[in-house]
Automatic annotation (TrEMBL):
<dbReference type="InterPro" id="IPR001789">
    <property type="entry name" value="Sig_transdc_resp-reg_receiver"/>
</dbReference>
<feature type="domain" description="Response regulatory">
    <location>
        <begin position="3"/>
        <end position="119"/>
    </location>
</feature>
<keyword id="KW-0418">Kinase</keyword>
<feature type="modified residue" description="4-aspartylphosphate">
    <location>
        <position position="52"/>
    </location>
</feature>
<keyword id="KW-0902">Two-component regulatory system</keyword>
<dbReference type="Pfam" id="PF00072">
    <property type="entry name" value="Response_reg"/>
</dbReference>
<dbReference type="GO" id="GO:0004673">
    <property type="term" value="F:protein histidine kinase activity"/>
</dbReference>
<dbReference type="GO" id="GO:0000160">
    <property type="term" value="P:phosphorelay signal transduction system"/>
</dbReference>
<keyword id="KW-0597">Phosphoprotein</keyword>
<dbReference type="InterPro" id="IPR011006">
    <property type="entry name" value="CheY-like_superfamily"/>
</dbReference>
<protein>
    <submittedName>
        <fullName>CAI-1 autoinducer sensor kinase/phosphatase CqsS</fullName>
        <ecNumber>2.7.13.3</ecNumber>
    </submittedName>
</protein>
<keyword id="KW-0808">Transferase</keyword>
Amino acid sequence: MTTILLVDDHDDIRDMIARQLQQRGFAVATASNGLEAVLQTAQVAPACILMDINMPELDGIEATMQIRAADTEQRIPVIALTAYALPDDKDRALAAGCDAFLPKPVDFDQLFQQISELIGEESPQD
């Protein structure tokens, strides 16, 4: 089963996105901040990471840079998900190593299309 790591500091947003991913047949691992995301990435080896940008402990930009620095075997795709969808925010996320940038609220059709493009497969229920 394809595992997605979902990183968001808001429980309700994390739960809503996790349900959508699970309904599409993905296994979901979660983290509530960037520090947990770095640790979970090493433990879970997800096929893709959905990374919130504004979080406590370690923000999504710094977490992505740490994941990229440690990711020597493969390049795990990272999709930045953020309510702060200004051009500068997108540029910062992409410069940190994110592969894609999607605004919140999440358009799930767009999200699943992006996941499919980045991991090279359709969602399990497609």
